[in-house]
Amino acid sequence: MSFNYSFSDQSNTATRASAPWSAVQSRYDLSPSPPPLPTSGIDLDDYMDYDDKKQDIPINMNNGFNDEEDDNDEREMGEGSDMKRLMKAWVAERCAPGILKWEDDLVDGLMWRVEQQKEMVSTLLSEDSTSEEEHFKLMLVQTEMERAKFLLRSYLRTRLSKIEKYAQMITITPTVQPLLSPLELKHARKFYALVASHFKLSVLDSLPDRMGDLEEVQSDGLSMVAKPNPTTAVFIYCRRDIGPQRLPSFGSDKPVSL
């Protein structure tokens, strides 16, 4: 697992604690090396100015999305920054009827970086030499941290809701299980075992044996196993012209312009 940090020695706590760049650089996915660290004092101006100029971040009111910015990021950095990737994964997970693939490296990387930022901010806030203006700038970094934590929590809660809703299907369907993390799969199995035990003790033991199967499929195809509806309507937003596309689910081979 790799992160877009300009330093890799996690054990060098003294270096990170004394460098204001470390407190703000992980806010952005910067692969270029930063300007030299100051030999004395703390000056966040140079580093935050360098950060903003390097990223050239536009201010927009479109719920944080900027098509031109996203297109440029994807051309320059492949999948874009981790925050953009998390936002896209979060939106996709909330809109998709079924559970999507677990973003292991992305979530672990962001959680690690949030913890690193938290330590850096705490260190800089505790130093007497930190000015009032620098305190304000650190508050902006903390705000960005809260935004990342909100997205992480919402992403995990959305997946947890789906896992508990389709726990039985996940438990008996090997092809779905690779989409979950080991902890998610463990939770799904335990949750289904508890639900099945509750149904058995509460109702099924009092019914005839032929009516006590939780995996029964009736003659009309109706199954006792709750599954995502693959025909659920979803919204597709194309950020660029991709030309005519064939959508077989529309019942027609006529190309659709997207």
From TrEMBL:
<protein>
    <submittedName>
        <fullName>Predicted alpha-helical protein, potentially involved in replication/repair</fullName>
    </submittedName>
</protein>
<dbReference type="InterPro" id="IPR036224">
    <property type="entry name" value="GINS_bundle-like_dom_sf"/>
</dbReference>
<dbReference type="GO" id="GO:0006261">
    <property type="term" value="P:DNA-templated DNA replication"/>
</dbReference>
<feature type="compositionally biased region" description="Polar residues">
    <location>
        <begin position="1"/>
        <end position="16"/>
    </location>
</feature>
<feature type="region of interest" description="Disordered">
    <location>
        <begin position="1"/>
        <end position="42"/>
    </location>
</feature>
<dbReference type="InterPro" id="IPR021151">
    <property type="entry name" value="GINS_A"/>
</dbReference>
<dbReference type="GO" id="GO:0000727">
    <property type="term" value="P:double-strand break repair via break-induced replication"/>
</dbReference>
<feature type="region of interest" description="Disordered">
    <location>
        <begin position="58"/>
        <end position="79"/>
    </location>
</feature>
<dbReference type="GO" id="GO:0000811">
    <property type="term" value="C:GINS complex"/>
</dbReference>
<dbReference type="InterPro" id="IPR038749">
    <property type="entry name" value="Sld5_GINS_A"/>
</dbReference>
<feature type="domain" description="GINS subunit">
    <location>
        <begin position="127"/>
        <end position="200"/>
    </location>
</feature>
<dbReference type="Pfam" id="PF05916">
    <property type="entry name" value="Sld5"/>
</dbReference>
<keyword id="KW-0235">DNA replication</keyword>
<dbReference type="InterPro" id="IPR008591">
    <property type="entry name" value="GINS_Sld5"/>
</dbReference>
<keyword id="KW-0539">Nucleus</keyword>
